[in-house]
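Protocol step 4 of 5: obtain the predicted structure for the target chain.
Materials: sequence only (see below). No template structures provided, no constraints applied. The aim of this step is simply to have a reference model before the mutagenesis design in step 5. Sequence pasted as it appears in the construct record:
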Amino acid sequence: MVNVTVFGAGKEVGRSGFEVKGANTKLLLDYGVLVKEERPSFPLSTSPKGLNGIIISHAHLDHSGIAPLFYTSESPPIYMANITKQLTDILIRDLLHLSSYYIPFEALELKTMIESSTDIREGTYKMGQAQVTFQSSGHIPGSVNSLVDLEGKNIWYSGDINTIDTALLKRADPKLPELDMAIIESTVEHTPREECEKKLVETANEVVEGRGVALIPAFSVGRSQEILCILQKNRFKYDITIDGMSRTATKMIAGRPEELRDPKLIRDAMARSNWIQGQRDRNRALSKPGVIISSSGMLSGGASTRYMEKIKNRSNDAVILVSYQVPGTPGRILMDEGKYGPPGELKKAKCRVEWVDFSSHCGKSGLMQIVKGLKGNPKVLCVHGEAASCTDFASRIKEETGLDAYAPSIGETFTV
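Step 4 output (structure tokens):
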């Protein structure tokens, strides 16, 4: 028998982590952090001793951010794509910079983890008594979904998965055998991609042609590059400025053309963009019409907050939110209430505020298509979504497929 325990991402978005444990083999599927305004939250823990492999599905902090914790006393094997290793390194370093008081490891443990990692590509790897097969998940560069074959049981973990083509990446098309369990994310339905791209470009044009600045806070890994490619392919003719960690991540990702759907598109976009090198460049970007793409995507830190402080009281300017906004973050408060500022000092923003429902995840209908295509009679764990979304998805799966589907809480264990 194989036990699967939900360490994180049960009825919540963030801190993904799942333990897969057989008689002689123990694996971790992701080990992320949930970044909040007050303090970050971590998944449940396990001993690094006897850990045959940590699998990092992709670089985003909610899947990778707390993994260095296992390297304070041991050096368990860890597996991730090479670009994931590079991006994880810069993202966790930034997490340490912003939240070091609450993080139970230091840069040394991160360095040990990176040096301990095995680069993966699509294919099969042996970890203890398990065979683990990776396929691209179409979410961000380097992202994978994982099929664990352990003790005759097949357990598939979607990670974050996207089955439509985007400007940046090709879609995922997982090929799977009969399964005993599927662990799948539970995102909500999304606006069609074509509508999102049209709204983004039209809004940016309106703001700039009205002599304003359009700030686009975006996740540094994946979303910033996607927005850059969309503007380029739609022949956006005005100034584009790139700042924050989006700069480093964009250069890293452009340096891995094999990961990208159209490497020339991002190279051309980079060549015509302005790259911030200091405060003088920021002042210049704020003084003339144009688009500014900068992390962080939820206005919870990074260079985007510096721009927001300047444009919040300028009615000609706009902030265009293009990422999921976690409840309680400055971006979500701005989106829902039109207010921005430190806790207890929120004030109505005078700038235009727009939200475009971009996602690098499948929507509910796409996820349901995946589930309906699963072979065998697997248990389905609906995770990595807000509580209502997980519960609703599990109910729909039971109703439409007859499969046993669950919206598990953190700490629940399932046996296959």
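Step 4 remarks: The longest strand covers residues 375-383. The chain is about 30% helix and 25% strand.
Proceed to step 5.
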